[in-house]
Amino acid sequence: MKKITKILLGIPLYIWLILFTVVPLLMIFFYAVFEITPEGIHFTTVHLTDVLTNVDYINATLRSIHYAVISTVVCLLIGYPLAYILAKLPERRRNFMSVLLLLPMWMNFLIRTYALMSLIDEDGVITKIFSAMGFGSGMLKGTDAAIIIGMVYNFLPFLILPIYTSMMKIDHRLVEAAQDLGGNAFVVFRKVIFPLTVPGMVSGITMVFVPCVTSFIIPQLLNNNAWTIGKLIEYKFVSGADAEAVSPDGSALSFFLMILVFLCMSVFNKIDQGDEEGGALL
Amino acid sequence: MSHHIIDLFNITKSYGDTEVIKDLSLYVRKGEFLTLLGPSGCGKTTTLRIISGFEQPDSGRVLFDGTDITDLPPHKRKVNTVFQKYSLFPHMNIYENIAFGLRIQKMPETVIKEKVKKVLDLVELSGFQKRMPESLSGGQQQRIAIARAIVNEPEILLLDEPLGALDLKLRKEMQVELKALQQKTGITFIYVTHDQEEALTMSDTIVVMNQGVIQQIGVPTDIYNEPVNAFVAQFIGESNILSGVMLKDYLCEFAGRTFECADKGFEKDEDVDIVIRPEDIKIVSPEEGMLKGTVKSALFKGVHYEMIVESDGFRWKVHSTQMTAPDTFVGMNIAPFDIQIMKIPYNILTGWILEDNQVDIGKINLNYAPQNANASEFGDEETVNVYILPLDIEVMDTVCEDDEENVLTGEVETFRYKGDDYEIQVKCDDLLLLVHTYKKVKVGQKVSLKVPVEKIKIRKREEVAEINEENY
How many domains does chain B have? Predict the structure, then answer.
């Protein structure tokens, strides 16, 4: 009786998963490997091999990974210390600061990126600051740096929050125990705080890296010369000269991207689990 | 045994407006098992944390082996702590947990390996090196926490209610093991607990604390047999506490008649508290009894029965291996040496001296009579201790909201009949005052208390420290 109730309660979830995850996945796979011609449907690996051999596609993929890696590293360098400082603040200030941190995220992603666009334009504030600091001259828009700035700006909170959460979860008595056993501030950080925030870091990295790899709007708005895999897919489906609603090339690219993301995530998870057995990350 | 390893001098500590430790002085002898015992919020854990360095006292000094360590951070102190919830590092296996302190001391790996093995043998968890903390039971985690601390060979081991999370049976076993461990290693143990039985079982010295003040320091038998005040008597074991009068040496009066007793050295007709342990009352026939009463209830407690006998309105708690049925009319006898006479404790408040013989005790300013012949005995704004006897505080007939001289208004927190009068605790904001009164009040009732000007005693803080020393 109870089992039946459980199954019945799960039905909405199953419907959701089937309609919006399983069916689209199957459709992407289907369009990537089957060709629909007036004569009928037949299997083909042309599009998949194309994805893996076309130099332009490979370059776009590598460029996407390149941007994502740099952005994630920059996010980590900025985000980890910020999360640490945030976690150490007294409660009221901490709550206030977290709201400030989250505030931009309540605004539409596209609007934020458009706003950023004007900041890195020829007369943009950020361009001027960069020039003043001696990093090149002229506008940032249309450079690799523009994409990195856009990605870091948009995704930084996704990295800070999980790290911050894992820091807040650390029992303060563990810190005291480490001090009690003779550990100074550095030892306490290296041997207790840092290892205990690795899971938070891994989920933070995933939450930045994956959208960075797949992003198409940031490259498009901030540096339209750079082809990324996200932009390529968009091009195939929407804006390209031969774009079509059912694009075998686009489907194959999407399928490939999904496998790429899946691989990255499993690597991150490996790092996370490896750490439990003794600090593999260090 | 006489060497002091820890000396605390005039320690005070407040969190916000709440003073958790009031002018505490205490020493710990090398190699002893000392227990800080008291109800929650009495300041015992704070005292421990001041010794470990996790809390800084507002004033006062901490000496370790004669050296001032008040400002030394925790990681530089030669003490180790066993925390209440074990606090094992969840991301390290048992070997790494225990090796933590040794690695900081940069010991070679071979030495570490040897030491970890030895200490695991000591706590009877040999071969647990590779296990993760979460896979261990509570009792095993506790032993690892102890091992992690003593592997560093600290001069002092601080234990903050280490057995609190264990079940009763395991707790009893661990009590015996801890005591044995302390004797085997010779390390000074400072142990914090609210469990009086635990304290009595394990300690060489017990320090009973209440509201940030040391009530009594002594060996377990003294603390149990000769409590210095009603608080200690009630906290350590169960007891009947009554108001009485010391008529002369070896003769006292309570519960409406006189009793022979074993105490002397009180003033004639001095008001005192009388403590009688439930197991020291013998139930006899009504004709033979010094006191007569009716059994109200009888409850089996495992080894003995607990009977409540009502006599003249006072409900006596009596323990006996033989049950007397409820509603039986009985007599009760008490041997002279089983009657404990205690001086009535003062209310001790922190005050700041103002001009014109006034002292600020936080809530109000009290007028006081000059303490000595010379007028300017205290400095301006000097922090002092203010002593007021519970008997001297008068419960007024009406609640007065006005700022009358030396009148405090608060709510009754506790209420207890003591055979003759009532003992109440009145909470006036942060102050908790003990008051003896004949008036019957209710818990939660608002009352006004008048403190007579001439009854207030004021002492400088240094003098108090000397008094504490004498008491030791």
Answer: 3
Same domain, B133 and B268: no
Nearest Cβ partner for B75 among A171, A173, A182: A182
Instruction: Judge: A176–B74 Cβ closer than 8 Å, yes or no.
Output: yes
Q: Is residue B193 part of a domain?
A: yes
Q: Which structure tokens are listed for B89?
A: 């590092």
Chain A residues in contact with B134 by the CB 8 A cut-off are none
Q: What is the pLDDT of residue B38?
A: 92
CA distances from B327 to A36, A197, B240, B298, B309 (A): 99, 66, 20, 10, 9
pLDDT exceeds cutoff 70 at A199: yes
Exposure letters A98-112 (e unless 16+ CB within 10 A, then b) = beebeeeeeeeeeee
Mean pLDDT estimate for chain B = 87
Over 60: is that where the pLDDT of B130 sits? Answer: yes
Residue B86 token pair: 């074990």
- Kindly state whether residues B139 and B99 are assigned to the same domain: yes
Q: Tell me the shortest Cα–Cα distance from B157 to chain A, in angstroms.
A: 11
pLDDT of residue A181: 93
Q: Chain A contacts of B87, Cβ < 8 Å?
A: 171, 173-174, 176-177
φ, ψ at A88 (rounded to 5°): -90, -10
One-letter amino acid identity for B314? F
Mean pLDDT (whole number) for A41-64? 88
| Band (B92; pLDDT cuts 50, 70, 90) | very high
Has this prediction a pTM greater than 0.90? no
Contact (CB<8Å) B81/A176? yes
- B267/B186 same-domain check: no
Say if residues B116 and B160 touch (Cβ distance below 8 Å).
no
Shared domain for B255 and B185, answered yes or no, is no
Q: Which domain holds residue B244?
A: 237-343
* CB spacing of A177 vs B87 below 8 angstroms: yes
**Of B278, B311, B343, which residue is a domain's last?**
B343
Residues B73 and B216 in one domain: yes
Of A173, A182, A184, the CB nearest to B101: A182
CATH class of A60-276: mainly alpha
CATH of the domain at B386: 2.40.50.140
Q: Which of B91, B104, B148 sits opposite A195 (nearest CB)?
A: B91
pLDDT in tens, B165-184: 788 888 888 899 889 989 98
Assembly ipTM: 0.76
Tokens of B170: 């395991």
B63 and B140 both lie in a single domain: yes
pLDDT at B319 over 90: yes
User: How many angstroms away from the CA of B78 is the closest CA of chain A?
Assistant: 9
